[in-house]
Write a structure and sequence with these properties.
33% helix, 314 residues, 10 helices
Length: 314
């Protein structure tokens, strides 16, 4: 039987802090993020109408001319437009750099619709708000599980949210060899958590030991992955999975990602309570901007899934 990532249900109305349902789900979350670094979240707070509107808008913005999309370019690492990559011809991505910043969604929308588009902005907010709540819930569960409940407020206040629309264009040729071409190379995410949805076209794979696991989720589910910064902050108590996208079939793959990321002035280091003789310090303190800049270098790109250990491993 093929391996699967864990599936965790967040739809229980009794899922409140301190309840038996919370404690049971909390245990599942920690185990999944330790063993796989990810899980499928069954979560019903995003309506099917909002999800459909988001993917319709995503498809529409990628149909704009390249010169329009390039207005989303940014000098900041891992912000802004990404695409036109010779060895990843199917990949293209657009970014709202900080969802919580005033007018950030409108600024992004004005790239494509200079007179504004309120239904797009409303869809982004209706979609992202419950996912930010899911991010907070998962974060609280992890910190409670490892005895760091007193750090929850500090941790949550250290975060901002980056939002991406990504398209993987279907391949022109359909040979067996080309059906396995990479849409995105193997890598880890650098932040706290990543929450991913897709338009029903699979392709995401997560590496567990030497096995690539196909992540095939329900149409109304989300993939939650832990990032490098969360691994560093917990002093290695979580796992940040190497993941990639493979392309095949005859449809474009659209994906939407919400990243919770440490703020640029926040120093990422494990609390002293998580460092002892049994758990020696695994990572040097660092800031996310420096790490993202390293990822953008040739050395960081060559390191791939090992970039994090090379950059700040002790």
């Amino acid at each position: 039987m093929a391996s699967k990532i864990p599936s965790i249900n967040f739809c229980n109305a009794k899922l409140k802090t301190g309840s038996a349902e919370w404690e049971s789900t909390r245990s599942q979350v920690l185990q999944a993020l330790q063993e796989y670094g990810c899980f499928e979240a069954i979560y019903d707070k995003v309506s099917s109408e909002t999800r459909e509107a988001m993917f319709a808008n995503s498809k529409e913005i990628f149909e704009f001319p390249l010169e329009t999309k390039l207005k989303n370019l940014s000098d900041k690492p891992l912000h802004g437009y990404k695409g036109m990559i010779p060895n990843l011809p199917s990949y293209e991505s657009l970014c709202i750099p900080d969802l919580l910043e005033s007018q950030s969604v409108e600024t992004f929308a004005n790239i494509f619709w200079p007179n504004g588009k309120s239904d797009f902005c409303n869809a982004v907010r209706n979609y992202s708000k419950p996912l930010m709540e899911l991010d907070e819930m998962v974060t609280m569960m992890v910190l409670e599980s490892i005895g760091m409940k007193n750090y929850i407020d500090e941790f949550l206040n250290s975060s901002f949210f980056r939002f991406r629309f990504t398209r993987y264009k279907k391949l022109a040729a359909q040979s067996e060899k080309e059906n396995n071409k990479l849409g995105l190379v193997g890598h880890t995410d650098g932040g706290w958590l990543t929450i991913i949805s897709q338009n029903g076209v699979n392709g995401l794979q997560v590496k567990k030991k030497e096995e690539w696991i196909d992540v095939n989720i329900a149409p109304n589910s989300f993939v939650v992955l832990s990032g490098d910064s969360f691994v560093a902050w917990t002093n290695g108590r979580l796992h940040s999975p190497v993941h990639r996208v493979t392309m095949g079939g005859d449809s474009d793959r659209f994906s939407i990602q919400l990243f919770s990321v440490p703020k640029s002035d926040y120093i990422i280091e494990a609390p002293k309570e998580l460092v002892d003789e049994q758990h020696p310090l695994l990572f040097k303190p660092y800031d996310i901007t420096g790490y993202f800049e390293y990822i953008g270098t040739k050395a960081g790109a060559r390191a791939g899934g090992d970039a994090f250990k090379i950059y700040c491993g002790v």
